[in-house]
Design goal:
Keywords: Phosphoprotein. This is Response regulator. It holds the Pfam family Response_reg. The chain is of the alpha/beta class. The protein has a single domain, classed as Rossmann fold. Helices cover 33% and strands 22% of the residues. The chain has four helices and seven strands; from the N terminus they run βαβαβββαββα. The strands form two sheets. The chain has a five-stranded parallel sheet, with helices on both faces. A two-stranded antiparallel sheet has the order 4-5. Strand 4 and strand 5 form a beta hairpin. 28% of the residues are buried.
């Protein structure tokens, strides 16, 4: 019997690098997640309201915004404040990241191992904070 805890979990990925977005999308779809990808943060809140994702994976450095500011926006709205967020970044590491007022549920520095990504996602969906 398939692991039904992952089936139909909605994940929104906001990543401007098309290759990374494609890889994350393919991997998560192969793990029975429903994935929507955006390469810009514009209309992020509209997509979140429509999709009601179980998790948002967001790059910090986007062409039209800073992921940390987007996280603040997300956490400031009552309807989206509790959506878990996994931040990813090529520029920052766990040692030098400065999150600001709100911290994500998890952080991964790029390049990351696929198994680490999946472990973080499963952990965050189970309520863990990394």
């Amino acid at each position: 019997m398939a692991n039904s805890s992952k089936i139909y979990k909605n994940i929104l990925v906001i990543e401007d690098n098309h290759a990374i977005l494609d890889v994350i999308t393919l991997i998560l779809q192969s793990e029975a997640y429903k994935v929507t990808g955006l390469n810009k943060s514009v209309d992020m809140m509209m997509h979140i309201e429509q999709l009601k994702p179980d998790l948002v994976i967001m790059d910090i450095m986007l062409p039209d915004g800073d992921g940390r500011e987007l996280l603040t926006q997300l956490r400031s709205e009552a309807s989206t404040a509790d959506i878990p967020v996994l931040m990813i970044s090529a520029r920052y590491t766990e040692e030098n990241i400065q999150h600001g007022a709100f911290k994500p549920n998890g952080f991964l520095a790029k390049p990351f191992d696929i198994d680490d990504l999946l472990d973080r996602i499963e952990g965050i969906l189970a309520g863990k904070v990394y």
